[in-house]
Each structure stands twice: as structure tokens, then as C-alpha cells.
Amino acid sequence: QVQLQASGPGLVKPSETLSLTCTVSGYSISSGCYWGWIRQPPGKGLEWIGAIYHSGSTYYNPSLKSRVTISVDTSKNQFSLKLSSLTAADTAVYYCARDARGATWSFDYWGQGTLVTVSS
Amino acid sequence: QTVVTQEPSLTVSPGGTVTLTCASSTGAVTSGYYPNWFQQKPGQAPRALIYSTSNKHSWTPARFSGSLLGGKAALTLSGVQPEDEAEYYCLLYYGGARVFGGGTKLTVL
Predict the structure, then answer these.
(1) Chain B residues within an 8 Å CB radius of A113
(2) Shortest alpha-carbon distance between residue A14 and chain B (Å)
(3) Residue A101, CB half-sphere, CA atoms under 13 Å: how many?
(4) What is the pLDDT of residues A17-35, one digit of tens each?
């Protein structure tokens, strides 16, 4: 059973950089698939942030691209998100998910989400 | 900026049938956009229901089905159950980018 668990600080100050990590179990990141980040502001819809392949190839949401970096650590079976220049608008639940682009073309497994609040 | 549009809200009676749609600002949705559908209940992570237009995951109830309808992706629920009340999101692949629809709040009443 594939499981994903996002972790990181729940509170970050404006203008700072958010760092989140997603730990994958039950599946080796090196086996393939993209690994993605999605966020959901309170009471609003889902927004795709970006995705990374195990080789390090990335795709980013154009609206966030200037502030986002996604990286992968296959030795730890983890991938990470960095989002810089935070504002209150970045307050959201952040989800990580497996993105089988090029295979089944599905977002099949999701983490439980972690709430990040941007506030001083 | 690509926009994916869903009905903001729909209401259906228990046992009834309802179809949710997913439209693209770029034109007709085809199988090449690999439409995905997700269900989200309050306080929970989204749960995948349909991928690549019409394929079900192993956990997807049989009453959910996906298709293309009139240039849009569609999710049909047949024999709706009270537990199907939730927010439903579609997702389309645009080459390297992925875009979620705004969501449809489905009320079972």
C-alpha cells in the first residue's frame, strides 16, 4: 500500500520560505512516477503547485514558478517543496501525491495534508 | 492562464442520477487531457475516483463512471447514496502542467 506523509512547520512568517517534505512508503520513488504538491486555501479549491520525476525533471504551475522549487531525495524516498516570499495568500493545506503522468495518468495516492499558516 | 470550469453546485435525490462536467478554456476536452476525478469530504484529503477519462481505481464504487460528453469530461453518479455528498474536483493534464477545476459541491437531498 502506497502511503505519503507530508511534514513541516505549521506556522511561517511573511516573506520567509516554506519547506515541506513528503515521505513515501510502500513504493520506491526510483521506480518511476512523478511526485506532486497540491494546495488548498481554507474554504477554497485545489491548486496544483508542481511535480518532480525521480530523475529530477520538474514541472511547475506557471503562476507559482518564480517562487517554487521541488526536489527529490531517492535515498530517503522523499521529495520536498520550497516556496519563497510567502504572503497570507499562501496559507493553505498542502498535500503531496503520486502523479502517474505518462503511465496511468492518475493522481492515485495522496498524503493527509498539512496546514501551513503564514502569519507574523 | 488555462481555466478548468465545473458546475459550482448540484443537488440530487437519493437513488437518482447526476452528471458533473469539466470544461477547458482551451476548447474541447479530449482523452488526451487524461481527465481525472476526485471526491473530497470536509476535513479529508481528496480521494481519487476516475483516471484517464473513464478508468476506475480499485476502490472506486461501481456507481461512479467517467466519460466525455459534448466536449467536456463528465462524471456520472448512478444510484446516488447519501454518503456521496461531497465536493468533486476534476483535473486535466496540459502537457507538463496539470490544472484542477474549481470543484462541484454535490448535495444529496
Answers:
(1) 45
(2) 25
(3) 22
(4) 999 999 999 999 999 899 9
